Amino acid sequence: MARERDDDYERPRRRRDEEEYYEEDDRPRRRRPRDEGDATGGLIPYKNGKALAAYYTGVFSLIPCLGAILGPIAVVLGIMGLNYAKKHPKASGKAHAIVGIVLGGLTALGNIGAVIALVVGTALS
Fold first, then answer.
1. Do the Cβ atoms of 54 and 97 come closer than 8 Å?
2. Domain membership flag for residue 65
3. Residue 23: its pLDDT value, please?
4. Domain count for the chain
5. Could you list the residue range(s) of the whole structural domain that residue 97 is in?
6. Which of 36, 40, 70 minimizes the C-alpha distance to 53?
7. Which runs of consecutive H residues, i.e. helices, occur in the chain?
8. How far is CA 18 from CA 26, 28, 88, in A?
9. Does 34 have pLDDT greater than 80?
């Protein structure tokens, strides 16, 4: 259903030229407040470095033999990242910290289990 045009209705004007625009209105313009975002859309918690480090060490702990070292580090950094996120809600990064804790814990347990299996296997043979 199309809107009928009245004689009193004025269409908004388009700016033809910037100079003309500034000549008509010299008032200072307020800047719109920007949301606190970045180019990544807020996906990377750059304000919570401990959570980010926990995430990366958790992911890299999936590499065989590195998991024994990086797994516990990821767990510790993940707990520190969660504590930081609780104290500073704008920092975010809870999901990265949780992923670091889970991956680090699983790889640490897996590596400990592998070492125990090797020790028991060599002791029995």
1. yes
2. yes
3. 56
4. 1
5. 47-124
6. 70
7. 18-24, 49-60, 67-87, 94-124
8. 12, 15, 43
9. no
